[in-house]
Amino acid sequence: MVRSALSKVAWVGRTASMVFGLALVLALMLGVATMAFGADGDFFKVGKSNLASAVSTLTKSGAGPALKLNVDSGAPLAVNSTTKVAKLNADRIDNREASSFANGVGGVATNADQLDGKDQSAFASSSHNHDGSYYAAGSKVADSSHADQADSATNAQNAANADTVDGKNAADLVPGGELPAGTTIRGNYEMDGQASAGGLVAGDAISFGYTLPSNPVLRVIRSGETPPAECPGTTEFPQANAGYLCVYEIGWSNTSSGPRVYLVNRMGANIDLTSAGAGESYSYGSWAVTAPAQQLSAAIRQSSEVQQNADVK
Q: How remote is the C-alpha of 61 from its chain's centroid?
């Protein structure tokens, strides 16, 4: 009886061993085949190429991501298509959030109604001239008469008629013109000669180079004399108040009188000396004349005429 029991146990053991061995062989065969081919329905093989003819779906229950990809460097995911993937949201461009970019239509920001902080109403349109009237291209404004006369340098009528500079006539800006009011001209005089006796006359002329508005009033300052108030200058830098001709004698020798200035008019004056005896006679000096700002009074002119007719000692 014991032998019969042992015999049955041995049979069961052999049968189990045979079944287990068959299962192991099938598992190895199937496993090898799966790792070698990776056909549809097989396990996903890491580090291997996987080929599928149907869509592969990964479904995860519960909260949290269904897929997590970690890399040491480089992009975590690579594709070979430029087709847009629906519902794959990328909220950064050059590391900026979408909120950093303004919404717009046709490339224009919808809310861009200010430029440098100014509303668009602060800028006029290209055809607006701020006075309520508009002009077509190539037309001229109503008050452009002066611009019409200056279309070119050769046709600039107003430029041709511009005969004043700072209110002064162009003819007065060169010698021979009228000396502008308040303008001063300066010069020197010299008379000398070898006299054989006393009473001989040597003369010179004072020329202004310009024409004064009226005859100046004469003042003669002999050498060593104090100039009058109308002649506030010196022999080195002669000056004259407006409407005056001031003659400053610097040196003289062998004269019976100082320099005699006469025939004073708007263009100049005459000047001479009379020798006191035989020998060299001379007189030299400087002068200044200033154009009057207005017509001088009759009394001032009369005093000038008296001095012109007198020998100044």
A: 71
Res 246 pLDDT > 80: yes
Comparing CA positions, the residue from 183, 251, 247 lying closest to residue 211 is 183
What is the Cα–Cα distance from 10 to 17, expressed in whole angstroms? 11
The model carries a pTM of 0.44
Q: Contact, 215 vs 293, CB < 8 A?
A: no
Beta carbons within 8 Å of 251's beta carbon, 6+ residues apart: 223, 282, 283, 284, 285
The structure tokens listed for 161 are: 């008629």
Q: Among candidates 256, 179, 270, which has minimal Cα distance to 218?
A: 270
pLDDT tens digits, 258-311: 899 999 999 999 999 999 999 999 999 999 999 998 654 455 545 545 454 444
Q: Which pLDDT score, from 0 to 100, does residue 5 have? A: 47
d(CA 31, CA 43): 10
Phi, psi at 54, each rounded to 5°: -125, 165
| Domains defined along the chain, listed by start | 184-308 (2.60.40)
